[in-house]
């Protein structure tokens, strides 16, 4: 997990081409830091319990935490919201806490603490969806071109048959064959035509090249998210009485 966090920091420093990339790596770093901190807390609690030691004050408070039903309420409040909705909720909570109208301050502090990680995850989902939409939009012209090529190929046999019929009619024409030979001689030299070497070479399509690069970027993007999900899934679930 620490190596993954270091990789994310490296990308955050280097990959600042657009604000979208910056937002993505910053959100990914928030998730990595959160998961790493949770793993360290759990290790510290487990070691203290095994050794029979007293937990530090901050860990003891978090170990007691909120009731499991309250934790469920917090999750239901934050889960499924977009990043903009979570921003609006945070502003509302902070306003109530500063004005003194918030009744259970500890509860809303816990909500604000969880809100940070939920917003980062929502941001990652939105960026991923945005990049996939852009990628599909870039591929649409190529897909339409492929459909057109297939249509042309399906029509080509009938055209070739028509040309073949014309050639057959010429073959059995009553005109003397000598006329064709005379026209060929009048045309000039019997030397073969010069073939250009680049006629058979395939030109590189810039649009296809850009689409290939975009597919590679999306593949790297999805691999990073897969590594985060694997790291999150490998962490054992916290005890129900933590909060």
UniProtKB/TrEMBL annotation:
Residues 142-216 are annotated as: Disordered. GO terms for biological process: mRNA cis splicing, via spliceosome. One of its GO terms (cellular component) is cytoplasm. Residues 198-208 have a biased composition (Acidic residues). Residues 1-128 form the Splicing factor cactin central domain. Residues 142-159 have a biased composition (Basic and acidic residues). It holds the Pfam family Cactin_mid. PANTHER family: POLYGLUTAMINE BINDING PROTEIN 1/MARVEL MEMBRANE-ASSOCIATING DOMAIN CONTAINING 3, SPLICING FACTOR CACTIN. This is Splicing factor cactin central domain-containing protein. It comes from Erythroxylum novogranatense.
């Amino acid at each position: 997990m620490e190596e993954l966090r270091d990789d994310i920091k490296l990308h955050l420093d280097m990959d600042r081409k657009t604000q979208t990339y910056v937002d993505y790596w910053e959100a990914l770093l928030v998730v990595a830091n959160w998961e790493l901190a949770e793993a360290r807390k759990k290790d510290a609690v487990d070691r203290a319990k095994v050794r029979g030691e007293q937990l530090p004050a901050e860990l003891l408070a978090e170990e007691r935490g909120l009731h499991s039903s309250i934790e469920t309420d917090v999750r239901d409040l934050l889960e499924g919201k977009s990043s903009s909705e979570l921003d609006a909720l945070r502003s509302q909570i902070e306003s109530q806490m500063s004005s003194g109208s918030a009744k259970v301050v500890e509860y809303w502090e816990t909500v604000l603490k969880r809100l940070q990680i939920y917003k980062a995850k929502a941001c990652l989902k939105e960026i991923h969806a945005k990049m996939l939409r852009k990628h599909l939009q870039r591929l649409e012209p190529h897909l339409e071109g492929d459909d057109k090529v297939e249509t042309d190929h399906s029509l080509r046999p009938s055209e070739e048959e028509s040309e073949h019929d014309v050639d057959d009619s010429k073959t059995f024409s009553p005109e003397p064959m000598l006329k064709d030979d005379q026209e060929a001689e009048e045309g000039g030299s019997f030397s073969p035509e010069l073939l250009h070497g680049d006629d058979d070479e395939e030109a590189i399509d810039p649009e296809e090249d850009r689409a290939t690069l975009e597919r590679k970027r999306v593949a790297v993007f999805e691999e990073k998210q897969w590594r985060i999900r694997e790291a999150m899934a490998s962490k054992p679930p916290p005890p129900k009485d933590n909060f």
